[in-house]
């Protein structure tokens, strides 16, 4: 025993075991799936370009009716809910999984509303918490003019989204209810003041959530067109609305590249590959505090790579075709990728943290209430290691990524125009295939989170 | 805010009805609180970050223990509150969390963290604030002397004792020539060093040590490093690739002869051992800190504990048979909270001015008999090293279930003191 004691004298503290659940996905032949998806995207592009026959994408009116709940009302209600959430964030439980500020923002606003918008049109328009307050304040002030903010295009939204992406992916405690509430309130105030000065329309190019949700909703197969007090419900193939959009400005293109880069880096930062690259042990990473600087550079680096890759591809397409087609329209096709990847990337978070949100909405004061009529329940993560359910979840993600890229390819062909030489589509096709592989790899590789 | 998390589901109510009589009786008698302020306990919770899977069950266990303690009259006749604060499994945030819980929320003490790097990063701040800091991390850092007078581990045996106490039984029953497969970082190194030393002390031999880089997700090329004359294969692989490891190990040995296999349940904590893909583990042995499958001789306390936390006879959530708990570790939260109660009552704790008295009261503890407060079994606390010693279990996978094959004695895990914290000033 003495010999043993001697051997232990200099040993440091033991490290606790890793807490990551074993991954069922890692045991699946995901390499084959990814290859299959890449080939499918490539074949779609080649057939589309060569055959010169693309599916028609027409908007069809489903019905027309009076607007039942004016945006002024729904937005104001949303604003009141927002104020309530801020109060809960500041004064409520410190545990983020028991605080509606954290739960509603990160699962509701950041996952449910975007996915809902991709499927059912722009849900954010109704619940935008600035629209009604800005309208009311401008009316009270008798203000009708602008302050000239519009000349900055989408750049304010780009800057704000960049800050948000950093807060979400890199900063120390984005889930902390108090910090989130204070930041959200400060952000709301800044945007409120600017929008009162400029007019509520500015939200659509200056406020990043409004811009982001609006873009995602352009992929939706259903959407509302509003005029006066009438609303027309439209339908069409996903992407139909994108074809009708005016070309994107440089600042709007910057926004879309940022959206793609932020989603990519959010996935990348947790992979074993990235952890190995930055010298962290993926089985026991130190925590966010140790990697804030390197992840800040990582986020910026991925954005720079996204911009330069897309620029190079568009430029190569122009050179091959001999046409100087504007990059703006083609950039619209990346909206589909952003939408598909957002849905796939956050799907599991929705299924896990979403349960806490449901429980908290059902019992906001944690005293056994059943506001939503649900019996009290335990949050349950058993499916994460279920070898029957996880392949289904990966299947949903796979379908979202593959569908998004096929759509992106078709949109790119339509937007560039099929009168171009088929070879001119090659660079973009290669990029789409690359993005398909990257997206599916991010969802199937070993991750430390 | 700190009441029952999501209340009781109907099925849980049913389970509770069948729970231990003591617990039930306590539940029927609603405590009548005097006009006294609650005792506020801070819980440093790994709610997000790498420790989140453990954090979820640690919180659930803490809530269950809190209910039992409050139903039984609280501490010193005062109701008890737990304030949960997320540390993101990050050492820097850990220190901030302790600061917030103590300075802003006015907590009497802080407990609950498990990840070693977070504990090591947080403990100095607790000492600066002169606040009792009770960790549930099973790390050897407490007993090694690297922490301080305010940091204690009274709820779970440390990894040095766990690993060392396995050697005698493994050598006597499975074989004397051992090959170890472990991830190549501190966690794996502790197993390598502690177990190798214990094997050599017991007359066995570690014939190969296969260190696997933490970033590795396929292991086929490491398998040939396992010598053919290996009698016992000791594995502690962890992380997302564990299923892959087991699958590839099974492919390596095929249907032919294989050595005896011994692992730490850390590899499959919170995973159903009857999952498809884990068939190869049938007949192999695991260390367990607490038997996740309810054993035939389970005590009434054990039964009451399962019911209170909402865990079924297989160690899974009563609401989802697939949601296996972190059963081998989470009892530490339950027992730590009961040690807090015992320590506060022994010291006559009234306010934060009595924090030092509380630490001294815990240091004075020795034998802890098996009871509703110590559901994992009886223990012995070493006040000098601030570390508790309990029984460890070796279980065999039979029909996909972990059935206990051996219980270590308290002495099996004991080692000479490396520190005497009681000689340090507060």
Label this structure with key terms.
heterodimer; A: 449 residues; mainly alpha; 4% strand; B: 426 residues; alpha/beta; Rossmann fold; seven-stranded mixed β-sheet; five-stranded parallel β-sheet; 11 helices; globular
Describe this structure in words.
The complex is a heterodimer of chains A (449) and B (426). With 449 residues, chain A is mainly α. Chain A is 62% helix and 4% strand. Chain A contains 19 helices and 3 strands. Chain A has helices at residues 2-8, 30-51, 71-91, 100-120, 124-127, 131-141, 155-169, 177-198, 203-206, 208-217, 240-243, 250-268, 272-277, 292-321, 327-332, 334-345, 347-362, 389-416, 426-444; strands at residues 60-66, 222-227, 230-235. Chain A has a 3-stranded antiparallel beta sheet, with no helix packed on it. Chain A starts with a helix and ends in a 5-residue tail after the last helix. Residues 1-19 of chain A have low confidence and may be disordered. Chain B is of the alpha/beta class and 426 residues long. Chain B folds into 2 domains: 10-157 and 296-390, Rossmann fold; 160-288, Rossmann fold (3-Layer(aba) Sandwich). Chain B contains 11 helices and 17 strands. Chain B has helices spanning 10-17, 21-28, 52-71, 91-104, 116-129, 159-173, 186-201, 242-253, 300-309, 327-347, 355-363; strands spanning 39-45, 80-86, 109-111, 133-134, 151-152, 177-183, 205-212, 232-235, 260-264, 285-288, 316-317, 320-324, 367-368, 379-382, 387-390, 393-398, 401-407. In chain B, strands 7-6-8-9-10-16-17 form a 7-stranded mixed beta sheet, with helices on one face. In chain B, strands 2-1-3-4-5 form a 5-stranded parallel beta sheet, sandwiched between helices. In chain B, a hairpin with a 2-residue loop joins strand 16 and strand 17. In chain B, helix 4 packs parallel to helix 5 and helix 10 crosses helix 11. The radius of gyration of chain B is 21 Å and the shape is globular. The two termini of chain B are 33 Å apart. The model of chain B is unreliable at 1-30 (pLDDT under 50). Chains A and B meet through helix 1 and helix 13 of A and helix 3, strand 2, helix 4, helix 5 and helix 6 of B.
């Amino acid at each position: 025993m003495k010999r043993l004691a001697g051997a232990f004298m200099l040993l440091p503290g033991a490290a606790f075991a890793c807490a990551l659940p074993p991954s069922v996905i890692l045991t699946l032949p995901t390499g084959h799936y990814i290859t299959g998806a890449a080939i499918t995207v490539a074949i779609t592009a080649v057939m589309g370009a060569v055959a010169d026959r693309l599916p028609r994408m027409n908007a069809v009116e489903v019905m027309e009716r009076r607007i039942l709940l004016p945006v002024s009302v729904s937005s104001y209600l949303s604003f009141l809910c927002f104020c309530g959430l801020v109060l809960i964030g500041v004064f409520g439980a410190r545990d983020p999984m028991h605080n509606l500020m954290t739960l509603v923002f990160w699962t509701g606003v950041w996952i449910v509303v975007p996915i809902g918008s991709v499927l059912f049109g722009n849900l954010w328009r109704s619940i935008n918490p600035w629209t009604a307050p800005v309208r009311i304040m401008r009316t009270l002030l008798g203000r009708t003019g602008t302050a000239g903010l519009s000349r900055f295009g989408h750049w304010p939204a780009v800057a704000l989204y960049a800050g948000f992406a950093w807060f979400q992916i890199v900063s120390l405690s984005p889930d902390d209810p108090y910090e989130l509430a204070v930041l959200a309130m400060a952000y709301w105030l800044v945007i409120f003041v600017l929008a009162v000065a400029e007019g509520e329309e500015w939200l659509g190019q200056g406020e990043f959530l409004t811009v982001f949700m609006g873009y995602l909703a352009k992929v939706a197969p259903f959407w509302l067109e509003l005029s006066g007090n009438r609303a027309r419900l439209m339908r069409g193939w996903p992407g139909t609305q994108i074809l009708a959009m005016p070309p994107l400005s440089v600042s709007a293109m910057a926004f879309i590249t940022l959206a793609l880069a932020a989603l990519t880096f959010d996935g990348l930062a947790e992979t074993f590959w990235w952890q190995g690259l930055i010298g962290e042990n993926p089985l026991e990473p130190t925590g966010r505090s140790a990697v804030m600087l390197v992840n800040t550079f990582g986020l910026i680096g991925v954005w720079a790579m996204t911009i330069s890759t897309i620029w190079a591809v568009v430029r190569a397409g122009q050179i091959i075709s001999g046409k100087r087609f504007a990059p703006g329209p083609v950039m619209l096709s990346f909206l589909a990728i952003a939408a598909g990847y957002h849905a796939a990337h956050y799907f599991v978070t929705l299924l896990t943290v979403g349960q806490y949100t449901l429980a908290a909405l059902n019992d906001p004061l944690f005293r056994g209430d059943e506001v939503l009529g649900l019996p009290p329940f335990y949050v349950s993560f058993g499916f994460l290691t279920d070898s029957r359910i996880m392949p289904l979840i990966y299947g949903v993600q796979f379908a979202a990524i593959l569908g998004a890229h096929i759509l992106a390819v078709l949109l790119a062909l339509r937007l560039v125009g099929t009168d171009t030489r088929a070879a001119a589509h090659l660079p973009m096709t290669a990029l789409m295939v690359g993005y398909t592989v990257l997206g599916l790899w991010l969802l199937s590789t070993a991750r430390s989170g | 805010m700190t009441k029952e998390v999501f209340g009781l589901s109907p099925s849980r109510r049913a389970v509770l009805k069948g729970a231990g009589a003591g617990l039930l009786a306590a539940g029927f008698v609603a405590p009548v609180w005097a006009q006294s302020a609650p005792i506020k306990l801070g819980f440093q919770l790994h709610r997000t970050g790498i420790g989140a899977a453990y954090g979820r069950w640690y919180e659930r266990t803490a809530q269950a223990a809190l209910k039992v303690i409050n139903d039984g009259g609280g501490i010193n006749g005062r109701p008890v509150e737990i304030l949960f604060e997320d540390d993101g499994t990050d050492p820097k945030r850990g220190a901030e969390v302790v600061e917030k819980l103590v300075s802003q929320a006015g907590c009497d003490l802080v407990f609950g963290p498990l990840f070693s790097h977070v504990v090591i990063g947080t403990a100095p701040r607790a000492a600066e604030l002169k606040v009792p800091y009770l960790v549930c991390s099973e790390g050897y850092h407490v007993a090694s002397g690297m922490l301080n007078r305010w940091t204690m581990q009274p709820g779970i045996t440390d990894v040095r004792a766990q690993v060392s106490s396995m050697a005698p039984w493994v050598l006597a029953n499975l074989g004397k020539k051992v090959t170890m497969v472990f991830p190549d970082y501190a966690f794996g190194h502790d197993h390598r060093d502690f177990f190798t030393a214990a094997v050599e002390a017991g007359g066995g031999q570690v014939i190969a040590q296969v260190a696997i880089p933490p970033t590795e997700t396929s292991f086929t090329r490491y398998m040939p490093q396992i010598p053919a004359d290996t009698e016992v294969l000791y594995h502690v692989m962890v992380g997302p690739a564990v299923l892959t490891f087991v699958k590839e190990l099974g492919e390596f040995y095929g249907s032919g002869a294989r050595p005896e296999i011994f692992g730490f349940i850390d590899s499959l904590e919170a995973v159903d051992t009857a999952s498809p893909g884990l068939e190869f583990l049938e007949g192999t042995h695991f260390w367990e800190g607490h038997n996740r499958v309810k054993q035939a001789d389970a005590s009434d306390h054990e039964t009451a504990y399962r019911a209170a936390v909402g865990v079924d006879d297989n160690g899974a959530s009563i609401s989802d048979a697939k949601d296996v708990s972190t059963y081998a570790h989470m009892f530490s939260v339950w027992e730590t909270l009961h040690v807090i109660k015992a320590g506060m009552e022994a010291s006559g704790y009234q306010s934060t001015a009595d924090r030092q008295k509380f630490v001294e009261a815990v240091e004075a503890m020795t034998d802890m008999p098996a009871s509703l407060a110590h559901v994992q079994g009886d223990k012995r606390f070493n006040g000098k090293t601030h570390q508790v010693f309990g029984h460890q279990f070796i279980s065999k996978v039979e029909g996909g279930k972990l059935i206990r094959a051996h219980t270590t004695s308290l002495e099996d895990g004991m080692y000479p003191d490396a520190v005497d914290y009681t000689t340090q000033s507060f």
